[in-house]
Design brief:
Length: 232
């Protein structure tokens, strides 16, 4: 399928998923002790801090997040290859079900979790693992869709393109609305996630993130273009 067709609902779905990325990052950074489960660049940097013995940074959570993310991406990569040639909607719904289920299980684990004391400690690693696998699965799925400027989790290249391709740099400023919308979506998700974490803990934003993923994907899967085959 041509994911860049103007009639495709994929860009709208990916913007919604970008909002959930902000939610998940707020949950993990604010609730689980400075660890990212959606953005692995941050974990590599923090892992370097921890390796140097910087106070407040522990090696184990970052390794757990990276390992979980890789497991999720590996599983999604294998499943995605088996769906090559099959309707895109089928793959999208399966991916959404997996991600939502993992986020909702994490929500169940988070019930009774105390953020200030980070206890029970087993819950920290369980939530990191569950959300990390979910985000790894998400990233591998989005990678196969090949929609420009909408990775749903990282903004470095998006911001680079926004500046480097702008009229000020002598460019034609392609896809600037989409690029700005991507930045705004993650910002919105992070702000909403921070508000929810600070007032309601981790359970509510985890439930909301899973619901948004599933509802948005279901709406996208009903579109006629979702009947077209997923590219290999």
């Amino acid at each position: 399928m041509s994911a860049t067709k103007s009639s495709s609902p994929l860009p709208w779905l990916l913007l919604l998923l970008s909002v959930t990325t902000g939610l998940v990052d707020a949950i993990s950074v604010l609730g689980l002790g400075k660890v990212f489960t959606a953005n692995m660049t941050g974990n590599i940097v923090f892992l370097g801090f921890a390796a140097a013995g910087t106070p407040g940074f522990r090696v184990a959570p970052f390794l757990a997040a990276i390992a979980a993310f890789l497991v999720g991406a590996l599983i999604a990569g294998r499943i995605g290859k088996h769906h090559a040639g099959l309707p895109l909607g089928r793959w999208l719904i399966l991916a959404a079900l997996v991600e939502a289920a993992l986020l909702w299980i994490a929500a169940g684990v988070s019930i009774g979790f105390d953020i200030p004391s980070q206890s029970p400690s087993a819950s920290v690693f369980a939530i990191i693992a569950l959300t990390g696998v979910a985000m790894g699965f998400r990233n591998a799925t989005i990678r196969q869709l090949k929609v420009p400027d909408l990775t749903t989790t990282v903004l470095t290249l998006t911001l680079t393109g926004l500046a480097a391709d702008s009229h000020f740099a002598g460019g034609s400023n392609p896809n600037w609305p989409r690029r700005i919308a991507s930045v705004a979506a993650i910002f919105l998700g992070a702000a909403l996630g921070a508000w929810l974490v600070n007032r309601h803990g981790l359970t509510v934003p985890l439930i909301l993130a899973g619901a948004l993923v599933l509802a948005g994907t279901a709406a996208c899967a009903l579109h006629p273009t979702a009947r077209e085959p997923l590219g290999g």
